[in-house]
Structure formats: structure tokens, C-alpha cells
Specification:
With 353 residues, the protein is an alpha/beta fold. It has twelve helices and 14 strands. Helix content is 36%, strand content 18%. The strands form four sheets. It has an eight-stranded mixed sheet, with helices on both faces. It is globular, with a radius of gyration of 20 Å. Bound molecules: acetyl coenzyme *A and L-homoserine (HSE).
């Protein structure tokens, strides 16, 4: 069975948290497997900052024949985020009011806006219940926000390497990356490639928050003792910047990093703790022990605030990106979560749901 690519068109005005509007939008989305007769086998995935809707590309170990989410058993859905650059309406899309690309005029979005758009797609697909909503990093923020907005829809939430409110540390990292984009003179232009050089530096900065001292030591340590103008770790940084610039644009990067900054489930809900009282989904909070960007204290805090929730800690040398890499541990933790068993093993801790 293969994944299917689709596009959802919403042709009415869409109001944003800022008070601005979008004159409609489209979302690119991927499905895998079939909805069963009881319509109770839906898994909805929310992707991270630079991801796309095809979860089999970046979480391939979780989805597929014989894997945790086998398409023979599950109907799996993931939409590219609103504002994204993998088929959904974003800054490079044409504004139907001006017939020109939005570029810098694309309105700023929050995670509330983004999950509001996802929810319109969910309704269009007629999915009244979702067995599990799963997301990591920015996708975890969106999943938590959505589970709060629609508490009766999501039966389970798997919240991976994410938080309830973006931290001062995280905002500072994001702003440092946006400073790099602003330093690029082309950012002043309205063109598809505006800020692309700055984006490369932004990605290089971001890598330092996605990885860890240990992962650099393990993979990028200089083999010899000679002085060079291009140390292995230096060329790695340059390469990672080039690689992202080849598949992403600075506008979407800017927009989504600001959506991440504004993430705060407590906004207009009396604060984070009060907001969490409204979470109905059985929830597994997952952290990565070396995560510098979304440190494990953030997921432990959530676990403590949500009675009956489960918690799993993944061990990784990869830092935050461990959520994409440590899929064997993640699979085990989710399986245990589904079985509602109390576990206490070397690689993760978890309490009964
Ligand atoms: C649409 C989407 O892509 S989905 C969303 C974003 N995607 C992801 O996050 C993908 C998830 N994958 C990853 O994060 C990583 O690949 C990991 C964590 C799984 C593996 O990490 P690593 O083994 O360090 O691989 P990483 O991708 O960081 O770097 C490897 C690349 O750097 C290159 N590289 C490694 N060392 C160096 C160096 N010293 N100098 C230059 N290039 C280098 C490799 O040749 C390789 O190139 P390639 O990607 O063109 O094959
Ligand atoms: N590797 C991830 C990191 C952010 O979670 C990405 O590029 O989206």
C-alpha cells in the first residue's frame, strides 16, 4: 500500500488570531491506509518546522507494513502546515486579491490558526474521532493546542519533544536565526529567493539547538591534528545550511518560527495550568534526555500537570533531533502507552495512563 497525496481547498475567508484574514487557503495532505467501518482507526500526525505532509519521509520507522502504524490497520493523515512550502498556502502562494505572490505580506500565523485550518480539513474528511494525535517539536505544540481546542475529538495525544508555551531560550534561538535572515540584503526584496543566504546561516544556528555536543563529537570530530581552513564540523554547518536552502524558503521559515514563538496554550485561557485542565485526551508526553531546545523539564512539567498522563524519556546522543532518530524507543513507549502498562525500563520511564 502506498501513501496518497491530496489537496484540500477552503474557499471562504479564514479569520486569524491577529484579526487579519486569509481569503481562503489550501492544505496539501497525505493519507496512508483506509478508514475502517467503525471510523475508529485514525492517526493524525503534525510535522515539525521544516517537515512536509509525507510522514513516511521523516518518520519512516513508525509508519509502514509491520511497523507501529501499519496502513493495513490504520488510516493515517498529515497536512502540511498552513504557511508551509510543501503544497499548502504560504508566502510564495498567489494572493487571489492581488494576483501576486504574498511574499512579505503573508499574515503572521499562530499555532491556533494553523490547527484551525487542520480542523476544517478534519471536518471535510468526516473524521469525528481521532484515535491518536501525534506530533513532535512544532508539531507537538500544534497537537497539544488542537487537543485543547477540540477535546471531544482526540482520544489520545502523543506529544513528543515539545512544550506548553515556547520558552525564552527557544524564542532567543529563533530570533538569532531571523537576525541572520534580516542581515541578508536580498530579504528586502519581494522575490522567491529573498533571504536565502540568511536562511543558510539560520539553519546552521538551528542545528546547534537541534543536536548536541555529543553528536558533533561523534560525527564531526576532526580526524587528524592539522590546521585547516575547513574543519569537518565547519563544512558540516555550511552543508546543512545549503541543504535546507535547497528545499525551503526564508519566508516560511520566518513565519513558522514566529508561530512557534507565540505558542502558549494558556493565552486567554487563564494560564497554562488552567488550560491543561481541559485536556481530555489520554496523553503520553515524550522527552529526549539531551534535548537542549525543548528540555525534558518542559515535558515533565506537562506530565505533572496532567493527572493520569504517561511520560517517556528517550535516551539519545542526537539532542532535540532524537525525536526523529530514536524511533525504536518511541515505538516501544507508544506500544506500552496503548497497553496502559506501568513500565520502568532503562530507556524510558512511563506511568500507567
Ligand atoms: C521534508 C523533510 O525533509 S522533513 C523535515 C526535516 N527533516 C528532517 O528533520 C530529517 C530527519 N533527519 C535528520 O534530522 C537527520 O538526517 C538524522 C538526525 C536522522 C541523521 O543525522 P546525521 O546522520 O547527522 O545526518 P544529517 O542529515 O544531519 O547529515 C548528513 C548529511 O550531511 C553530510 N555531511 C556529514 N558530515 C559532513 C561534513 N563534515 N561536511 C559536509 N557534509 C557533511 C552527509 O554527506 C549527509 O549529506 P546528505 O544529507 O546529502 O546525504
Ligand atoms: N529537524 C527538525 C527540527 C525541528 O524540530 C526540522 O527540521 O523540522
Amino acid at each position: 500500500m502506498s501513501t496518497q497525496q491530496h489537496t484540500f481547498h477552503y474557499q471562504q475567508e479564514f479569520s486569524l488570531e491577529s484579526g487579519l484574514t486569509l481569503p481562503g487557503f489550501q492544505l496539501a495532505y497525505t493519507t496512508y491506509g483506509q478508514l475502517n467501518r467503525k471510523r475508529d482507526n485514525v492517526i493524525w500526525v503534525c510535522h515539525a518546522l521544516t517537515g512536509n505532509s509525507d510522514f513516511t519521509e521523516w518518520w519512516s520507522s513508525l509508519f509502514g507494513e509491520g511497523k507501529l502504524y501499519d496502513p493495513e490497520d490504520w488510516f493515517i493523515v498529515c497536512a502540511n502546515t498552513l504557511g508551509g512550502c510543501y503544497g499548502s498556502t504560504g508566502p510564495l502562494s498567489v494572493n487571489p486579491n492581488t494576483l501576486q505572490p504574498y511574499f512579505h505580506s503573508f499574515p503572521q500565523l499562530t499555532n491556533r490558526d494553523i490547527v484551525g485550518a487542520f480542523d476544517l480539513l478534519r471536518q471535510e474528511l468526516g473524521l469525528q474521532q481521532v484515535h491518536t494525535l501525534i506530533g513532535g517539536s512544532l508539531g507537538g505544540q500544534q497537537a497539544l493546542e488542537w487537543a485543547l481546542q477540540k477535546p471531544d475529538v482526540f482520544e489520545r495525544l502523543v506529544h513528543v519533544a515539545s512544550n506548553a508555551r515556547h520558552s525564552a531560550w527557544g524564542i532567543a534561538f529563533n530570533e538569532s536565526q531571523r537576525m541572520a535572515i534580516r542581515q541578508d540584503p536580498s530579504w528586502a526584496n519581494d522575490s522567491e529567493t529573498a533571504g536565502q543566504q540568511g536562511l543558510k546561516t539560520a539553519r546552521a544556528i538551528a542545528m546547534l539547538s537541534y543536536r548536541h555536543y555529543t553528536s558533533y563529537e561523534l560525527t564531526q570530530q576532526e580526524p587528524g591534528n592539522s590546521i585547516t581552513d575547513n574543519y569537518r564540523a565547519a563544512s558540516y554547518q555550511v552543508y546543512q545550511g545549503e541543504k535546507l536552502a535547497g528545499r525551503f524558503n526564508a519566508y516560511t521559515y520566518w513565519l513558522l518560527s514566529k508561530a512557534m514563538d507565540s505558542h502558549n496554550i494558556g493565552r486567554n485561557r487563564g494560564g497554562v495550568e488552567k488550560a491543561l485542565h481541559h485536556l481530555k485526551a489520554k496523553t503520553l508526553f515524550v522527552g529526549v534526555d539531551t534535548d537542549l531546545l525543548f528540555p525534558v523539564e518542559e515535558q515533565r512539567f506537562l506530565h505533572e500537570q496532567v493527572p493520569g498522563s504517561a511520560f517517556a524519556l528517550l535516551r539519545s546522543n542526537y539532542g532535540h533531533d532524537g525525536f526523529l532518530v530514536e524511533t525504536d524507543q518511541l515505538t516501544k513507549a507508544i506500544r506500552k502507552f496503548y497497553q496502559s502498562e506501568t513500565i520502568n525500563e532503562l530507556y524510558y520511564e512511563q506511568q500507567t495512563v
